[in-house]
C-alpha cells in the first residue's frame, strides 16, 4: 500500500527562514515536540487554535502557512533526481 500524507512545506520553510527551531516553537505553543514533529511531517492535523498560535509566532497568514501538499510514494511532489527543473 503506497504511503500518502499531507505535508506543510510553507511551515517548514517559515520555521527555517525565521530561525525558530522546532523544540522552541513547541514550547511556545505549549505542546510536546513530538506532537509538533508529527504536524510538520504530515502525520497529524493541527487544530484551528494551534494553527493560529503558530502563525502568530511565525508572523504569517495561517492559510498560507498550512497550505497542504500531498506527498505520495507513487508520485512525489519533489524528487532529487528531477530537481532543479530543466529550462
Describe the structure.
This protein is mainly alpha-helical and 87 residues long. The protein has five helices and two strands. A two-stranded antiparallel ribbon has the order 1-2. The longest helix has 10 residues, at 9-18. It starts with a strand and ends in a 15-residue tail after the last strand.
Properties at a glance:
single chain, mainly alpha, globular, 87 residues, disordered C terminus, two-stranded antiparallel ribbon
Work out the strand percent: 5-15%
Major sheet strand order: 1-2
Low-pLDDT segments, ≥5 res: 79-85
- What is the residue-mean pLDDT, rounded to a whole number? 85
Helix percentage range? 40-55%
Count of runs of 4 or more consecutive helical residues: 5
Distance between the termini: 35 Å
Gyration radius, to the nearest Å?
Answer: 14 Å
**Overall number of strands:** 2
Major sheet, described briefly?
Answer: 2 strands, antiparallel
What structural class do you assign from the helix and strand content? Answer: mainly alpha
Shape, please? Answer: globular
Order of helices and strands: EHHHHHE
Compile the SSE list and pairings:
Layout: E1 4-7, H1 9-18, H2 22-29, H3 33-40, H4 48-57, H5 62-65, E2 69-72
Antiparallel strand pairs: 1-2
Helix pairs in contact: 2-3
